[in-house]
Amino acid sequence: MIAADPIEVLLVDDHELVRKGFRLMLDAQPDLSVVGEAGDGERAVHLSRRLRPDVVLMDLHMPGMDGVRATELITAELPGVRVLALSTFDLDENVVAALRAGADGFLPKDVSPEELIEGVRVVHRGESAVAPRLLTRLIGTFVRTSPPRQAPAALTGLTEREREILVLIARGRSNAEIAAGLSVSPSTVKNHVTSLFAKIGVRDRAQAVIVAYEAGLIHPGE
């Protein structure tokens, strides 16, 4: 049996010691390989273009070009590259900005080695590495303080069931919880989720939750 290629990771942090620590954690795993390091957002974008890593581990707070802008450029130009944002704080306005910019999840910088490793694997699989209830608390805190945004016109094209599922996603429900609550199979929920994501133009749950809040389908505290 041929072993799968390791997941290639680019580390982005303005502190060399932090990068060194993350490298030691990740390179110790047989399925992960650190292929480069950057100390600022501009270098991160350059290396992402050159190396095409599978996952970029992106610190959000850096001098010069910050992690939010770098995330925006990378995800717009390189859709195959996944970004996992890192923040010093659980509730950080920049995290919401990074999720809007296309990040596939976020972790606090004091995350355990096991959580960091699993987070890289999760975003590489195309999933969102954010605990659903933490995501809704985070977005509920900061979306309400942001200027109102026009909801995607595609929301009007959602079926009643798709709209219902979008609201449940925004309330922090997992696919399994939605399936149990609606008395349908998980595969049926997955199909609805895939369809509604395509209709509203988002690529993961994080962005879907933001759309639901901005469209007024759900309000902080619900």
TrEMBL record:
Domain HTH luxR-type: 151-216
Domain (Response regulatory): residue spans on this chain: 8-124
Keyword vocabulary terms for this entry: DNA-binding, Phosphoprotein, Transcription, Transcription regulation
Pfam families per record: GerE, Response_reg
Record PROSITE patterns: HTH_LUXR_1, HTH_LUXR_2, RESPONSE_REGULATORY
Annotated SUPFAM superfamilies: C-terminal effector domain of the bipartite response regulators, CheY-like
Gene3D superfamilies (alphabetical): 3.40.50.2300
InterPro entries: CheY-like_superfamily, NreC/VraR/RcsB-like_REC, Sig_transdc_resp-reg_C-effctor, Sig_transdc_resp-reg_receiver, Tscrpt_reg_LuxR_C, WalR-like
Modified residues (4-aspartylphosphate): D59
SMART domains according to UniProt: HTH_LUXR (SM00421), REC (SM00448)
UniProt-recorded name of the protein: Response regulator transcription factor
Organism expressing this protein natively: Nonomuraea maheshkhaliensis
Taxonomy of the source species: Bacteria, Bacillati, Actinomycetota, Actinomycetes, Streptosporangiales
